[in-house]
Amino acid sequence: MAFKKVSRIKIPEATIRRLSLYDRCLDDVRKAGKKIVSSSDIARKCGTNPAQIRKDFAYFGEFGVRGVGYYVENLQEDIKKALGIDRSWNCALVGAGNLGFALLGTDSLAERGFRISAIFEQDPILVEMGSFRDIPLFSMDQMQRIVPEMGIRIGIIAVSPENALKVSHQLIDAGVKGILNFTPATLKVPLGTILKNVDFAIDLEGLAFQLANA
Amino acid sequence: MAFKKVSRIKIPEATIRRLSLYDRCLDDVRKAGKKIVSSSDIARKCGTNPAQIRKDFAYFGEFGVRGVGYYVENLQEDIKKALGIDRSWNCALVGAGNLGFALLGTDSLAERGFRISAIFEQDPILVEMGSFRDIPLFSMDQMQRIVPEMGIRIGIIAVSPENALKVSHQLIDAGVKGILNFTPATLKVPLGTILKNVDFAIDLEGLAFQLANA
Predict the structure, then answer these.
(1) What's the pTM?
(2) Which of A5, A206, B80, B191 could anchor a disulfide with B86, C-beta 3.0 to 4.6 Å?
(3) Interface touch B109/A206, C-beta < 8 Å
(4) Which of A49, A68, A83 is the last residue of a domain?
């Protein structure tokens, strides 16, 4: 069984998010020592239904053997490949404030293949520190040189909202291809650059919706 | 035009997330002084298509007048009502670490109706501060009393992963109905309590997927 190369069909963002969740559930399954898993097993663990899972997998082509289930290890490999996390991604963090430090303290990013290789910061006193948890700290004007030198593909923006737009331009100029924006600032990126905005209020709104309709 | 009371039909989480995004786009539209907006306008601003928007709105019943468009103000009122953010929600933050302070510094939560009314923290030295940005700081053992007293409905868990499970139980015992979990810990909540997990790696995986398939 192998997921085919992703076709031209646009895969819904919700499917991608669910693939991430399936992968996490499969971690638990694997740790529990199970080798084969059915879509019903995954559905139960992830709080979805088997039809949804099969539909999500179908975007990527082949299925496991029906009635027998999926080999956990192979399925995870295929999901990671589909998600593009069968490799590691070099990331730069911009902004060594509270949020930046919180992100640096999150082991789960590295576990999922996202390695923060450099930190950029405008405050010279922080830059003086030289590094944080062995990750080198640079001033903003070193970005143009460091990003290509270290092969950094993803920039994580954790600066104050009023600086976010400028930082996004600097990152793109330096050659970053993907941006994760933690600020509420509205950014625009050129074609070929991928932007994702993280907005904690959206999760709270999802919660509020369910509470209001419970 | 008015959104009907949400029916028994299960509304996809992706629709709820998009409603949050539409509401943010409509903020911009309103600020630009526009009074009427078409689904094509919203689609262009939000990077989706008009059919998707009409489909999302259809879960809530009535539409605006076709061909004329939606009154921005009414539409936003209806979306906020549907999302349950036509009111304000009292939240408690548990954990005054880097992430906690980052969240406290995020004005956008309050702007969207989520008011952090209390902070709970296990470190007595921090609790000694008494308050942060006028938000009272309490020790963990005050949770049982403070949550009902302040009418807190939502608990935000920003502690270390190994403490998350215990904190979730404490919050639920104290009467919290919704939990936003920022830790990678896997939590289980009883029926009637809503749990949402925030996982920054999922956003990065969405980015990786697009970069790998660009």
Answers:
(1) 0.84
(2) B80
(3) no
(4) A83
